Amino acid sequence: MPTTPKIGKDKILEAALQMVIEEGKDSINIKSLAAYLGCSTQPISWHFGGMEQLRQELSRAAVDFVARKLTSAFDDKKYIFGHLGLMIIDLSFDMPNLMEFFIYDDYCKQKTLLSCEYEKSPNLMKVAEYISADINLEIEKSKEYVLNMYIFTVGLVQLIISRNFCGSKQHAQKMLCNAAFNNLRGLGFDTSAYKDTVLNC
């Protein structure tokens, strides 16, 4: 009977996630991951059975990793969308390969803010509720605002990770802030008292 490998499952997933960050999702297969770890393919096969199970576990690890990065956006409700949007932009510039995986992987899309199914996203609904309560914006207008900003942010992220965005990180952040204020104004909201709170721009 085969013995338990000395290299644990968590270490393998950590290495796989690091490979995604450094080289992109297409760099990973069992053989390349084993080479990255400096071991045989046996520990990977023992823990995951095959590439399909490894891919599923890696998707979960990617969601957890990005979620931890974004958690602080929820620490102060009055900064909810400003922090969240700006942190997503930061990750897109700093870890474009990871964000590409995060946006396009089927499992990730189902479990994160960056899902195409807005109405089914409890996370986006939570953001809308926070903003509605914090700045006294009607909930339907808050939902519209979050949807508009969600579409804008995802579009910006896609330009960044595809290397088709010509500006700097600061330029992208300023674009996000301007879009946020313009969207709120378009909904009839007076943003003058909120420049240093709601969006933290």
Q: Which structural class fits the helix and strand makeup?
A: mainly alpha
Mean pLDDT, as a whole number?
82
Helicity range: 55-70%
Q: DSSP strand (E) fraction?
A: under 5%
Structure characterization notes:
The chain is mostly helical and 201 residues long. Helix content is 67%, strand content 0%. It has ten helices and no strands. It has helices spanning 9-23, 30-37, 42-48, 51-70, 80-94, 96-104, 106-111, 122-135, 139-161, 169-186. Helix 1 (9-23) crosses helix 4, helix 5 packs antiparallel against helix 10 and helix 8 (122-135) packs across helix 9 (139-161). The radius of gyration is 20 Å and the shape is elongated. The chain starts with 8 loop residues before the first helix and ends in a 15-residue tail after the last helix. 29% of the residues are buried. The mean pLDDT is 82.
Brief account:
This protein is mainly alpha-helical.
